[in-house]
Amino acid sequence: MDYKLLVLDIDGTLTNSKKEITPRVFDALKKAQEKGVKIVLASGRPTYGIVPVAKQLELEKNGGYILSFNGGKIINAETNEVIYQKTLPEEMPALLYDLAQEYKVNIMTYLDETIITPKAEDKYVEIESRINKMQVRQVEDFKSFVNFPVTKCLMVEDGDYLAGVEQKVKARVGETLSVLRSEPFFLEVMPKNIDKAYSLGKLLEHMGLTKEEMIACGDGFNDRSMIEFAGLGVAMANAQEPVKAVADLVTVSNDEDGVAVVVEEYILNK
Known about the structure:
Blueprint: E1 5-8, H1 10-14, H2 23-34, E2 38-42, H3 47-56, H4 59-62, E3 65-68, E4 73-76, E5 82-85, H5 92-102, E6 106-111, E7 114-117, H6 123-132, E8 135-138, H7 142-145, E9 153-156, H8 159-173, E10 177-183, E11 186-191, H9 196-207, E12 214-218, H10 224-229, E13 232-235, H11 241-246, E14 249-250, H12 258-268
Parallel strand pairs: 1-2, 1-12, 2-3, 7-8, 12-13, 13-14
Antiparallel strand pairs: 3-4, 4-5, 6-7, 6-9, 9-11, 10-11
């Protein structure tokens, strides 16, 4: 198969445990783009948190794409054109805040370059801030403050506890919203039917490509849909077991240049 689209999750996939793109991975992706393959960075991160990685890989020069908020928004990295976007129903952030209070977890969302949360002193908020290099703003009245379009809310807590909260939130809003964990401690709440696979389908339509021409690599629960959807779905060796179970291929880990291994074998050596 002549693959034309390479979709990469960032954390735990493209980057190693130090959040770095290794020289071997960088070189493989540079050569893939020179060969005409388009790269999509597909992450639960907000757009602002993906842009530096896109710039590092020179996606703006090579016609790549940024899929942020787990598929809530897709932009052309070269032109900044919004290809697809969907936001939460207007009343939902307030309802999700109430659920977070009820289930004793913290909640956050995003405004431009800032993370908005009622509790800034939270290790999981600090993780999100560090990953995305975003400032944190604590607001006293989250429900009143969040009066702007929201693509995603994030509930955070210890993974074992959050697993139970996930089921409770799904029972309450699963009919109208998409609820999934991107990390054991991150519970993503997004518009209904929004996941990486759904939004990639929209991008494929825009590009005039088929899913058979797409490789997707990931490691987390939120990567499962795109790995199942892609012509070649690849799970990293460090991926969650349910993700490995649906993959066409399990490559080596993100600390062993797994993305480069896939690109070298299925794109560069063809």
